[in-house]
Specification:
Bound molecules: pyridoxal-5'-phosphate
EC number: 2.6.1.-
Structural class: alpha/beta
Strand content: 5-15%
Largest sheet: 7 strands, mixed
Number of helices: 13
Strand order of the largest sheet: 1-9-8-5-4-2-3
Keywords: Aminotransferase, Transferase
CATH architecture of the largest domain: 3-Layer(aba) Sandwich
Enzyme class: transferase
Shape: globular
Oligomer: single chain
Protein name: DegT/DnrJ/EryC1/StrS family aminotransferase
Helix content: 25-40%
């Protein structure tokens, strides 16, 4: 079948991408009459494990649920601290808050927008129970320098790899490096289930804890529950299973994933080439050879960013700013201390339209609009900065 998603072009910042076969798979799942956790979910788990080359994967309802359960499985409890970059989607922080733990916000490296081993090490306190590196844009993070130190202090690494399905870390895929790793399969991710997520557990015991917790704390399988007059509830639990309907979509997406890797990589390379020569634009590097890119993010001079954003939006180029800093959010402020480096970096961030149905032509349209807008914005800003304070009459339009 051919691609069925409407193109969207530069008018969409991000969009789902369907190959067509998802519709047949979804119809089959609907006809089966089994919509909850089922055989499709378990087949999807096995296929994910084979793709990542890991012993097991636990599928869940969302990426946020994956993070929440992974933290619980790592033993994070009320009063603990979890180190997390402020520059992430608020879901990372809400998952920490849901366990009763406190987020401890850290900076990111301006070259990658990811936390480094040094950032994590510097933020550890006696209360730290886990660190949550966020693989911004899909880029893997090398934690070799801090891994032993964390293990010695019994601090878990819970990777927020929501953006990074398919990317490579060293010689293995993200998820296969021995840490608790969480993926999101929501609508705009490289692999979508509509909504969905998954955790790669470190041990069989952890897998059992995750499976029980995603099913309201009930350890018995659906078949076991059906055959018996009762079941047991043996621990904290949530309704976090991945439905058959969502798993059916995900299985088609996974089978076609090599195509997605190629599309996203080539789109990012086209962007990088088109943006390279534009004055006042720095492309945030994604290590594209090892990454399935989720975004194309650029840095522009801080005094121009907001106006460039407004002008491009007005021209129907759907730029964004990923993400509003979490330590400045009203809900998280009580846990925050100032992060001036993140704050000044944030003022430069612009995320460009990036989704697999975009063509090279769309990329050139965005690059040209960005170049034009920056020139225009720079000259307006300089005119304002150099105009004499008292006498602005000469800038007024003639009547
Ligand atoms: C960095 C990050 N973490 C977590 C999530 C949460 O994933 P989900 O939307 O599947 O709950 C997202 C979603 O976009 C994300 O970008």
């Amino acid at each position: 079948m051919t691609v069925v998603t409407a193109p969207g072009g530069p008018r969409a910042n991000a969009r789902p991408f369907l190959y067509g076969d998802e519709i047949t798979a979804l119809a089959r799942a609907l006809e089966s009459g089994q919509y909850g956790h089922g055989a499709e979910t378990e087949a999807f788990e096995r296929e994910l494990a084979a793709y990542l080359d890991v012993p097991d994967v636990v599928a869940v309802a969302t990426g946020t649920a994956a993070l929440h359960l992974a933290l619980l499985a790592a033993g994070v409890r009320p009063g603990d601290e979890v180190v997390v970059p402020s520059l992430t989607f608020c879901a990372s922080v809400q998952a920490i808050a849901a366990t009763g733990a406190r987020p401890r916000f850290v900076d990111v490296d301006p070259a990658t927008l990811c936390t480094t081993a040094d950032h994590l090490r510097a933020a550890l306190t006696p209360a730290t129970r886990a660190v949550m590196p966020v693989l911004y844009g899909g880029r893997a993070i090398d934690l070799a320098d801090v891994r032993e130190h964390l293990a010695a202090r019994d601090i878990a690494i819970v990777e927020d790899a929501a953006h990074a399905f398919g990317s490579v870390n060293g010689l293995r895929r993200v998820g296969a490096t021995g840490d608790l790793t969480c993926f999101s399969f929501d609508a705009i991710k490289a692999l979508t289930c509509g909504d969905g997520g998954a955790v790669v557990p470190r041990t069989a015991r952890e897998a059992a804890i995750l499976r029980r917790a995603r099913a309201l704390g009930i350890p018995q399988t659906r078949a076991e529950r059906g055959a018996a007059v009762s079941y047991t509830v043996e621990g904290a639990g949530f309704r976090y299973h991945l439905s058959t309907l969502h798993a059916a979509i995900g299985r088609v997406q996974l089978a076609r994933f090599p195509e997605m890797e190629t599309r996203r990589r080539s789109l990012w390379i086209t962007y990088e080439t088109a943006l390279r020569e534009i004055e006042n634009v720095t492309v945030v590097d994604l290590d594209v050879a090892n990454t399935v890119p989720f975004t194309c993010t650029v840095l522009v001079p801080a005094p121009l960013r907001d106006e460039v954003h407004t002008r491009l939006r007005a021209a129907e180029i759907a730029v964004g700013v990923h993400y509003p800093l979490n330590h400045l959010q009203p809900a998280f402020r009580s846990w925050a201390s100032p992060l001036p480096r993140s704050e000044s970096l944030w003022r430069q961030i612009l995320t460009l339209p990036f989704h697999p149905a975009m063509t090279a032509n769309d990329v050139h349209t965005v690059a040209a609009a960005l170049r034009r807008t920056l020139r225009l914005t720079t000259s307006t800003t300089y005119a304002e900065a150099t105009a004499p304070d008292q006498d602005l009459d000469h800038l007024k339009a003639p009547r």
